[in-house]
Write a structure and sequence with these properties.
The protein has helices at about 30-40, 55-60, 65-80, 130-135, 140-165, 170-180, 180-200, 250-255, 265-279; strands spanning about 10-20, 40-45, 85, 100-105, 105-110, 110-115, 120-125, 205-210, 215-220, 220-225, 235-240, 245-250. The chain is of the alpha/beta class. This is UDP-2,3-diacylglucosamine pyrophosphatase LpxH.
């Protein structure tokens, strides 16, 4: 076996922050996440919401073996000694009925104060409570969710074409989101409001998910960190043992081109989208 064919070395971190996996959605990149979990180890893993997509599962049940594999992989890490904290989001809000409960070694919490190795504190929460659309207009949120499905549908189709052309993975949905003025304004406002909440909690920073936009930046003296997602960007936040935070991607970590989309999924998602529109 050549060096190129060998598995990449395992990277060890103090803490991993992962959000917006959306298990139960056909857009979830479960295979990429499994690859990521195989080559990373952490003392603590914090799941920052929307790990399970309850909204989509209510509409249409979809739970392939890869979803079970992700859950089993996390449970196995818990059994081996990793502390795993699950902070529910809006798509897995059913978990918010179980604060303080342990499931197979996974702790459920509404929010969490994380103390870094460098002594800095971070408020960790999903972030949907600061999204006015989700909080005050559930119908609009569902309509927005449907529109996002359409963007993901286009994303999968383009990825299949790019794969046939030998081009690497590229996220249309992530690109489109950043081209829409209202979306960009929403992202900026969301970041500011979440940073304000961290300031009220006397935390040095905030770590959240929800908007599928991975970034690390300072906002008026507060460190704002968004974990991204495993639908578009396939990103996570890693804390090193000196307290340094790093935004890492599956593609960079694995060294393998992200080009695995199957054209059969395009047909399945198109049929699903059309049937929902007709309903």
């Amino acid at each position: 076996m050549t060096e190129k064919e060998q598995d990449p070395p395992v990277r060890r971190f103090r803490t991993l922050f992962i959000s917006d996996v959306h298990l139960g959605s056909k857009a979830a990149k479960t295979d990429y996440l499994l690859d990521f979990l195989r080559v990373t180890e952490a003392e603590t893993i914090i799941l920052v919401g929307d790990i399970v997509d309850g909204w989509r599962l209510k509409r249409s049940w979809y739970w392939p073996q890869s979803c079970n594999d992700v859950v089993q992989k996390l449970l196995r890490k818990a059994r081996k000694g990793s502390r795993i904290i699950y902070i529910p989001g809006n798509h897995d809000e059913f978990m918010r009925d179980f604060p303080g409960v342990h499931f197979g070694g996974i702790e459920v919490a509404q929010r969490h104060i994380h103390e870094g190795a460098d002594g800095k504190t971070y408020l960790v929460l999903h972030g949907d409570e600061f999204d006015v659309v989700v909080r005050n207009a559930r119908l609009l949120a569902y309509l927005g969710d449907w529109a996002y499905d359409m963007a993901i549908l286009i994303n999968v189709g383009l990825s299949a074409v790019r794969r046939r052309l030998g081009l690497p993975y590229w996220s249309f949905s992530a690109w489109a989101k950043l081209q829409v003025k209202h979306a960009v304004n929403f992202i900026g406002e969301f970041q500011r409001v979440v940073a304000d909440e961290a300031r009220r909690e006397n935390a040095d920073g905030v770590i959240c998910g929800h908007i599928h936009h991975a970034v690390m930046e300072d906002i008026d003296g507060v460190r704002y960190i968004n974990t991204g997602d495993w639908v578009e960007s396939c990103t996570a936040i890693a804390e090193h043992h000196d307290g340094t935070m790093e935004l890492i991607t599956w593609r960079e970590l694995s060294g393998v081109p992200v080009v695995r989309e199957d054209t059969t999924e395009v047909e399945a998602m198109m049929a699903r989208a059309l049937s929902q529109q007709a309903a």
